[in-house]
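Let us work through a complete example step by step.
Step 1: write down the sequence.
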Amino acid sequence: MINIKAQQTLVKFNKTDAGTLRYLMRPEKYSNLTEAKVIA
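Step 2: predict the structure and record it as tokens.
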């Protein structure tokens, strides 16, 4: 099982943009995955 966390980040598309708060999903731990787990 992959543990993930939601992290709120300010996303800007250009330098003059005020930005938008978005939630990005990130893995808590990095580990090697087998092909079967990736396909599933």
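Step 3: interpret the result. The chain has a mean pLDDT of 82.
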